[in-house]
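seq as requested:
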Amino acid sequence: MRRYDSTPKIKGGRQRGTSTTVATIRSAVSSGRISYREIVMQEDQRLDVLAGIEYGDSTLWWVIAAASNIGWGLQVPADTLIRIPRLVDVQKVI
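struct tokens:
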């Protein structure tokens, strides 16, 4: 699962358009279609390391970022509330 898999191709299929995957995940979390658990980030934690622990794949950090409604930084401030969505739910909506 990659964040650009569902992104439309433009310019004769040579480029990808704007990804709607992040917005889809955020909306599904807000509406309850994706279940998640919450944690509070500790000092020096990073989203890629957290994704590696939670999902066994550090490249899925963007799923946690999308569900948590944060930007694309791998490192977020301590005490930030993070949502860790269930991947099976994410796969159903994207």
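Helices lie at 21-31, 47-55, 61-67, 87-93.
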